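Re: weekly structure request thread

Next one in the queue (143 aa):
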Amino acid sequence: MTKKRLKNRKLLTEINVIPYVDVSLVLLVIFMVATPFMIQGIDLDLPKSESQALNKSKSENLTISINKKGFYSLDLGEKDKIFKTFKEFSEQFEKIVKNNSNLEIFVRADKETKYDNVVQIMSLIKRYKSDSINLITEPSKNE
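Done, posted below.
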């Protein structure tokens, strides 16, 4: 009797892909929801201004951030690197600028940062790239 049952039974040779599709869709939704919360760089409270927005540049961008504690951050499109002293920051900045002549430089500074920190950054940028300094601010509320 058991031999009869085994003969009538066919083997299933297909892989059931429905669980894999379900897991893939769940992961896709998780990444889509989590992506906006993955803000790179250091947390800043930018000053507000009524200036016009810049057009997107076609060259490479380098964003320099300064927080209110005086830490510096470089963002060249990859993961940010945070520097605790101006000397460390300036050495890394010099290497980047010498290797990339067509960089456009953006400066973000917390509104409570020391003016001296911003002046040091502007002076350093002017020494290596006097034609490309852009300050990033937030639009004022009435816009």
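The chain has two domains: 2-37, 48-139. The helical segments are 2-8, 18-34, 86-99, 115-128.
Next request, please.
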